[in-house]
Amino acid sequence: MSFEWINESDPPVLQCTGDMGHIECGELREHLLTAAAEGRDLRIDISKVADAGTIFVQLLISARRTAELQGRSWVLQGASDSVQAAFARVAVAEGR
To answer: In this structure, what DSSP letter does residue 69 have?
Structure first.
């Protein structure tokens, strides 16, 4: 698991790699809170996430809502099969 800010693009991209369980989501949350506090637009690349659970999806949804409320842009790039499956599980659980 790793998180890396790639600053060559505008806005910078937060590259997420590896498994995204409870512990990893805690670290991701810190990156997202920092971006929100700094007023950064968010572009998050999740194409290299190997395993994702519902907490990961809930964290991304929360980050999107926060960004929208602050008038910042929020974009997800790519979605591994694991991430797509996690989003589907959350949608089913919420009755969507």
So the answer is: H
Please, what's the b/e burial string for 14-23 (b: 16 or more CB within 10 A of its CB; e: otherwise)? Answer: bbbbeebeee
Give domain limits for the chain. 2-93
2-93 homologous superfamily: STAS domain (3.30.750.24)
Q: List average pLDDT for each run of 10 residues in the chain, which is 96 residues long.
A: 86 93 94 90 93 93 92 92 90 68
pTM beyond 0.90, yes or no: no
At a CB cut-off of 8 Å and minimum separation 6, what does 90 contact?
54, 57, 58, 61
- Fill in the amino acid letter for 95: G
